[in-house]
Specification:
The complex is a heterodimer of chains A (about 450) and B (about 110). Chain A has 2 domains: about 120 residues, Rieske [2Fe-2S] iron-sulphur domain (Rieske Iron-sulfur Protein, 3-layer Sandwich), CATH 2.102.10; about 270 residues, Naphthalene 1,2-dioxygenase Alpha Subunit, Chain A, domain 1, CATH 3.90.380. In chain A, strands 11, 12, 13, 14, 15, 16, 17 and 18 form an 8-stranded antiparallel beta sheet that branches. Chain A has 13 helices and 18 strands. Helix content of chain A is about 20%, strand content about 20%. In chain B, helix 1 packs antiparallel against helix 4 and helix 3 runs antiparallel to helix 4. Chain B has 4 helices and no strands. Chain B is mostly helical and about 110 residues long. The chains are: A alpha+beta (about 450), B mainly alpha (about 110).
Chain lengths: ~450, ~110
């Protein structure tokens, strides 16, 4: 039997029926079980076990600015923890609940190399060992037998990292380029996003949204003035996005994750390539143009419904420039201003991300200021965990399909006791993204090989 | 499209590293996808095949919603369900089974 193309223009399906009707038709392409497998990261879940095989960013060092400073609350992978910097400057990360009567150690006194619970005086060092039980008579003290949950930490690349997995599987630190440049060459921001980590990563690797969500109206409408502006600019992305609106997508599996390549026709015999890096478990690097600063993210599950978004801008060769700092301060690109105590963005869903409808009518697609806030608004609008059983994907979603498939493979492999290769091989993180022109007969992984090597 | 090659698709058109253009659920589209499935071995190839089947499934899904009275409804419904099964087989690297299943829908 043969199906002929229907008369309707299928590239522009009609949406007159409520989309919810679609769920009546067959099962979903990403099964509910797979969606749950990918998005649930509490202790004991398969994805939670997987994330617990990696060092994860936890704090900006400025959150614990000095020895014996006040402790701070940390929520990570569904666990409530307390971080403190002891008298010797070491960072401890303990279960928030005191093992004695479950009082919060957030109220604890940070004193003489330990955090003392103010309820009954039990005191714990950074390793979780109880070093004092002040409320017990001397002859009944058993502090040397009491421990609380404590996770190893380290300060590296301008962040405090933690490892929450089994001690025998403690991994190497990822040798990410941004973690190895001098402090003056790097800026890191932290923000709370009210979604599961997975849809945040999906936004980070979805190349096709930037021409819409982040576009100015001039760029979207391709006005004459925009074309003239682009011609004079050295921004390759803007130039070649104008020339080719229907890019070709491809992915390549690597030791560390994926290279996501998007190809556009350029002049004569060239293609313009944009190469995004996805590094397991949840790092991404945005395509960068040689000579400019580089930007990347790490998306860390806070719990199943919220994530920590770590955004990094760095220049491997020089301190960040005046223009870089201006962009950061103006929040026009990947960084967004946050409340310094909660890390909730100033533009957030409670204030509709400060949308300016007049600006949306006259200036840009969203009326929301800055790429970070635009991404956050859209991703949060999908709900805390997007119901992927109701999606309708197309071939432009190849990168998202590949990333999910890779994560599913990794999570299932660990469930079968096959340890993740990447966690044990910090050197494989030694890569960059790229955007470049290549002759049409040159494969991107060949032509961009040198450019994708980190240098620092 | 020349129909004397693998599943009616000429062999030189079958490169598993390329994504089949899916704008409809015609027999030719399906044949091309089947031919690509049959030569797909790498992770990347299987991802592209998933993406193509996702697209066919989306288009057939929209058809079923938007054309409730179509005389082809039952046929498209079978295709929609078959593509779903083939997608799962591709995701499990069972390309031979996926291609065989899709051929039954031609």
């Amino acid at each position: 039997m043969i199906w002929w193309p229907p008369a309707a223009p299928w590239t522009q399906p009609r949406f007159c029926e409520p989309c919810s009707n679609l769920e009546l038709i067959g099962e979903a392409m990403l099964a509910r079980e797979e969606n749950e497998l990918l998005t649930q990261t509490d202790a004991g879940t398969p994805a939670g076990n997987y994330f617990r095989r990696f060092w994860l960013p936890v704090l900006l060092p400025t959150e614990l600015p000095a020895p014996d400073c006040p402790p701070v609350r940390v929520r990570l992978l569904g666990e409530n923890l307390i971080a403190f910097r002891d008298t010797n400057g070491r960072v401890g990360l303990l279960d928030e609940a005191c093992p004695h009567r479950r009082a919060s150690l957030f109220w604890g006194r940070n004193e003489e190399c330990g955090l003392r619970c103010v309820y009954h005086g039990w005191k714990f060092d950074v390793n979780g060992t109880c070093v004092d039980m002040a409320n017990e008579p001397a002859e009944y003290r058993f502090e040397n037998k009491v421990r609380t949950t404590a996770y190893p930490t380290c300060e590296y690349g301008g962040l405090v990292w933690a490892y929450m997995g089994p001690p025998e599987h403690q991994p190497e630190l990822p040798k990410l380029e941004w973690a190895r440049v001098p402090d003056s060459h790097r800026y890191i921001s932290k923000r709370l996003q009210e979604t599961n980590y997975l849809q945040a990563i999906e936004g980070g690797i979805d190349s096709s949204h930037s021409n819409f969500l982040h576009a100015s109206l001039d760029a979207f409408r391709v006005t004459d003035s925009y074309v003239e502006k682009v011609k004079k600019s050295n921004n390759l992305r803007a130039k070649y996005h104008l020339l080719d609106k229907a890019p070709w997508f491809t992915v390549k599996k690597t030791d560390y994750g994926l290279v996501i390549a998007v190809r556009r026709k350029a002049e004569e015999d060239n293609y313009y390539w944009r190469l995004t890096q996805f590094l397991l478990p949840s790092h991404t690097i945005i395509p960068y143009q040689k000579g400019l600063s580089i930007h990347g993210h790490c998306w860390v599950p806070r719990d199943d419904h919220t994530s920590w978004v770590w955004t990094v801008s760095w220049n491997p060769d020089a301190p960040l420039s005046h223009e870089d700092w201006q962009t950061i301060r103006d929040e026009t690109f990947v960084h967004a201003q946050v409340d310094p105590a909660t890390f909730k963005p100033i533009r957030n869903k409670d204030n509709q991300y400060m949308i300016d409808r007049e600006k949306q009518r006259t200036a840009n697609m969203t009326g929301i200021h800055g790429f970070a806030s635009q991404d956050q608004a859209i991703q949060e609008s999908m709900g805390p965990i997007v119901d992927r059983t109701r999606e309708r994907l197309g071939t432009s979603d190849t990168a998202i399909i590949a990333m999910r498939r890779l994560l599913l493979q990794e999570i299932r492999a660990l469930a079968e006791a096959r340890e993740p290769f990447t966690a044990r091989h910090g050197d494989v993180y030694w890569v960059r993204s790229a955007s470049l022109l290549l002759r049409r007969d040159v494969e991107f992984d060949e032509g961009a090989r040198d450019l994708m090597k980190a240098e620092v | 499209m020349e129909l004397n090659g693998r599943n009616g698709v000429s062999p030189e058109e079958v490169n598993p590293a390329h994504i089949v253009t899916v704008t409809n659920f015609s027999a030719n589209t399906l044949r091309s996808i089947i031919a690509h499935i049959e030569v797909s071995t790498e992770f990347e190839h299987l991802v592209y095949r998933e993406a193509e089947l996702d697209a066919v499934w989306s288009i057939t899904g929209f058809f079923l919603v938007n054309e409730p009275d179509s005389s082809r409804r039952e046929t498209v419904k079978r295709l929609h369900a078959g593509v779903h099964k083939a997608h799962d087989l591709v995701a499990a690297s069972r390309t031979v089974d996926a291609a065989a299943l899709l051929r039954t829908l031609l």
